[in-house]
């Protein structure tokens, strides 16, 4: 990639960005469900001082005691380079960077793949292109096979998805191939496909999965099945057709049509004949060979009589024209020698039988390792902000090749430019304790308020009539600087502490004579994060994620503004049958202190067509202080109800979804578009409530069931408690798919409130599920 620069230059630019006030939004987000970050850890026990050697087509990076491993890897890689590129029919334009570790245990410390991974084939592929990491296991043959397989895999990725970040992102939206396709071709290139043991393993795996669709296979089974398919193509149709299929796949975006067009038979027939070859034909041939060998062993050796010809005695310059054989290899060598002599070049190249020049291995170095930084991930997505409505979020992630350092820049902006977020974050993952900084600036402009936005006042004790339209001109600003240190206890568990400095402002532009409201807070955040999830296939996880977060915030202006908030978010993804996934989530929060903050429930996150819960209030007016809006929390989906149906300083919400991906059950050949390939059907149930005070929903005198009548100027005052069910239950069906590169969701839900089912509601929203 051309857009590369070294870490010292980044440090200068980083300091400049801090001075300009770029900011990071991760600490305060309106999207608690879909934008919440979890993630695994890498644990560093030692630092590696890297050095580099370069061969003809590769760059090898190693550390202390790894020089012999690097020399050996260079010989293997260069020795296989011509074979791999000839078989693929493709030569990469960039130099592949290979990071060599002395042992698998030390490889586990690598941060590669930790920053902005992109899911292309069901596994994690990081977009820092043209690099691979591999550990030396002590077994030469095993190391050689793994190295060739990794090189072949990356060559195929580069071939199908393009070498630049832009091409990768564009291709990943249009081209999705099953796991057998990618892992199988690399296994075929690196494997001994004529070995009887390998062939028997292929046959056993095919028999094991004979009733399954090969598109749904994962892991080692997918690799072996893929290896057998590519081997069958090479044996039955010739190796040249492998490169033809690969090249055609990039053009027409589907592996099934590529196989059909290249081989001239239907895909269903191809699959049928492939299975028959391994299960019947190949097995029968092996039986015949075994039987022939046993017969030969039991018979007496035969005597073969060979008629010898009288050797002709030739003089100098004479040729036996009757028995002369042309040697193609000698002819190629002779022509190459003559060409080199004509150009005055030294003759230091050998010619294989294929006729291609094979360069003599040249190794340069060692030299100091240059830790360059690349643009790793660029994302643009539409967000339906609950306060500012529709906007575009753009994110750029940059990191060094080892991903020890990463920088995240972002901008969220709406058609009203005064509504925006600007953010920046830096992570340092070099040592055992990871650390970094997050900086954020949020701006909210409130002008004409109507029934779509008057809900903002309800938690502030202003219940405005539904038909009211208010004209104001207020600016709310939120600025936060946070540093953090994270200690990974295990690859799945970490503890984080984050001191922070926050400022908030409420400025009335229509009355500049009124003093602006401003506060500065000192805070401390503690987090425990557990994440053992693994990708099952594209955008579908299995496993468990849990985050427990506690915020304590102290105002430097007045103790009456102090508050705290505890948040618990636990999610589990369980594979039930085939590719049917059961996803569950429980979310709980509680805010305390003299100025507790509000959580809002109801509707769907990132909704395009949200409907607001109507009010019948009589009070008209605008609160003097609107800064609490900056701290509103939107807990997640509660379908079947209007947006902002409930709110309180505490909430409890559960989401249950049964997800059925269509592509995992239907042959991909019949799915000709990404719309169909990414189609999912969902059945769901949401149960949630929100309340004020210390008496929760399981107490009869909770805030939802308790109403105070009278008081104030009225001499009579009474507390009335009803026994209404405080929990709202929503249930229904949904569909998800990709449309114009964006993941779109439609949910049709009914809401159950106190034994009464309300009318069904349709929700349209953007982005992935929790």
UniProtKB/TrEMBL annotation:
Signal peptide (from-to): 1-27
Keywords for this protein: Signal
This protein's name: Uncharacterized protein
Organism: Emticicia aquatica
